[in-house]
């Protein structure tokens, strides 16, 4: 049984397209799952509540970008979530680092343990600090 070269080329192109669309769909669904998770939403909410951080970014508008799935700073299991979220405003950008854990006695809800914004310029803003004079530190 002989198969022509043009048929093999068509099969290769078709297989490439199907595989590429499958990988793209999987990537999109994983990003969507992260963005809809409580630990992600709570971290972004901490950022939005901090006027110092929002002003430093030049937000609003705040742009929350997709996380880098291969980044070692992103670790999630059943009890803890440690994520690094790229964010930007009209002035600058940076990364929102967050560590959250589930509270077993509180309906297994996520609670932010630590949230820090690290700006591109090197400034670090602690979003979980209640003292405004401790918010910003240089590196």
Keywords:
elongated, about 140 residues, alpha+beta
- The biggest beta sheet, please? 7 strands, antiparallel
Tell me the strand percentage band.
Answer: 25-35%
Any idea what the radius of gyration is? Answer: 21 Å
Q: What is the molecular shape? A: elongated
Classification by helices and strands: alpha+beta
**Termini distance?**
68 Å
Total helical elements: 3
Which runs of at least 5 residues are low in confidence (pLDDT < 50)?
A: 131-135
Question: Which series of helices and strands comes N to C?
Answer: HHHEEEEEEE
Kindly describe this structure.
Helices cover 37% and strands 29% of the residues. The chain has 139 residues and is an alpha+beta fold. Strands 1, 2, 3, 4, 5, 6 and 7 form a 7-stranded antiparallel β-sheet that branches. The longest helix has 32 residues, at 5-36. Residues 131-135 have low confidence and may be disordered.
